[in-house]
Amino acid sequence: MKSWKVILKKIRGVLLTFVLCFAIPFLVFFVTSTVKDKLEKFEDGYTLCGIDLSRLDGLEAERKIENALKDNSAPLQISLHFENRVWTFSEKDFDIKSDIHIVLEKLQQSSRHDKIRTIRKIKAMGFDNKVATNFVLTNLSEKLDTLAQEIDILPTNADANFDASAGIFDIKEEKSGRTLDKEKVYDEIVNKIKTSSKIDVALSTKEVLPEVRTCDIKRATKKQAEFSTSYANSNVDRKNNVKIAVESLNGYKVLPGKTFSFNKALGKRTIDKGYKEANIIKDGVFVKGVGGGVCQVSSTLYNALLLSNIEVTEAHKHSLPVSYVEPCLDAMVSWGTSDLKFVNTSDLPVFITGKADGKNIKFTIYGDTNKENLVIKTKGVKIKTIPAFKDKIIVDKEGKYADKIMFKGEFLRVKKSKDGYEAKSFIEYYKDGKLVKTKQLRHATYDAQQGILYEGVSTLPDDMTLPKSDTFILSPNSVTTSD
């Protein structure tokens, strides 16, 4: 039996018309016709492209179709038009083939079980014009893909960015795109090739809508919550660090599905970036460190995120109590060890804006994170007090504070003692004025802080009496050290 590929190469031209014409009915026949045990002959009255195949087996049907097509030799030409561009193809541009007879042979030779399985396989292929056309012009799809690269235009999503200098959102509107309507190309080729070997098709496109529209992006600029803390009593260096950190976050944009990292957003706090030394908590004590004050920035942001219905995925407590937020609502950060993180689980960007005016740190969160319009509140509750340690007294042998204290019994407090505590923090969700859900955020313990006093070195002369001091010593049994 000659293959359809060989026959088609010999007779060329309008042969494609008939191959396309009978490809679909031939496949449909095997899916929709009554399947007999042998399937050796076509049923009475069955025709392909007007050729009567009644009671013919597969080989006889092929020969009859071949004889009917031998006289058709007009060359194939396909011209595709779009705007002022034209693409022209001839049959030489395609790998022309047809192996429908293989399906017939398999059906004739298989058992009934295999026949049914093959029919299901054929049916799964589908019977639209795209399948039929590509069944014969096997690389037409690739050519259309190449054309589409010149024709298609991607849509542009609406977007927004926060202009930190102006303090406003800059919104960019969406633009629709277009894509080549390939299905329509296949339909027109199949319809026109039935009557002519010269095919002219005006290409059309389909509109491609952007995923994010202007009305969507405006929801991303909706204010969700704000939170502020005071740093008015901080020294100059600490205020400097706070300002640098807040400005680094002002206008920060977190795209859908992306993770926000406080450390990544700010980078390592270094002298080169303008950070200065100020108090930080390290190993349970306050010490000088570059970037002191940044933890107040992260804690302020942490509370703003909670109030915006954003689930924070990483937050850490300090080892010692801090005064700028309620108990258990702090968020300590340290480069390389501790971070503040959240994932934007909404469909739109989340924006963080911040301001530090020398007195207060304020963060505002914008986005579409609270779809139910819940009123969200946080609270920290102390459940146990941990008394402060005895004061630590250091004899001022080096004369560090000689201008303030001179004699034994004279004390200068350089650090206040502070009780620690055990506490819990909660987040509450209200709807229409009613509490609908409460969630515990943290249960933690904060160490007490030991007070530090310096004492003078010299022995008080017998004829002198020290003036009354307002320095309060936590315990008469305070630890004395000569450090």
Helix content: 25-40%
Shape verdict: elongated
Q: What low-confidence regions span 5 or more consecutive residues with pLDDT below 50?
A: 1-15, 27-39, 122-127
Total number of strands = 25
Q: Roughly how many Å apart are the termini?
A: 105 Å
Q: What is the gist of this entry?
A:
The chain has 483 residues and is α+β, with helices and mostly antiparallel strands.
Describe this structure in words.
With 483 residues, the chain is of the alpha+beta class. It has helices spanning 4-11, 15-32, 58-69, 100-109, 112-125, 129-136, 140-151, 182-193, 214-220, 236-249, 262-266, 294-307; strands spanning 47-48, 51-52, 77-82, 85-90, 159-163, 168-172, 177-180, 198-202, 205-208, 223-230, 252-254, 259-261, 277-282, 285-290, 312-314, 341-343, 350-356, 360-366, 375-386, 392-395, 411-415, 420-431, 434-446, 452-455, 479-481. It has twelve helices and 25 strands. A four-stranded antiparallel beta sheet has the order 10-18-17-11. The radius of gyration is 41 Å and the shape is elongated.
Helix-strand blueprint:
Layout: H1 4-11, H2 15-32, E1 47-48, E2 51-52, H3 58-69, E3 77-82, E4 85-90, H4 100-109, H5 112-125, H6 129-136, H7 140-151, E5 159-163, E6 168-172, E7 177-180, H8 182-193, E8 198-202, E9 205-208, H9 214-220, E10 223-230, H10 236-249, E11 252-254, E12 259-261, H11 262-266, E13 277-282, E14 285-290, H12 294-307, E15 312-314, E16 341-343, E17 350-356, E18 360-366, E19 375-386, E20 392-395, E21 411-415, E22 420-431, E23 434-446, E24 452-455, E25 479-481
Parallel strand pairs: 3-8, 20-24, 20-25
Antiparallel strand pairs: 1-2, 3-4, 5-6, 7-9, 10-18, 11-17, 12-16, 13-14, 15-16, 17-18, 19-22, 21-24, 22-23
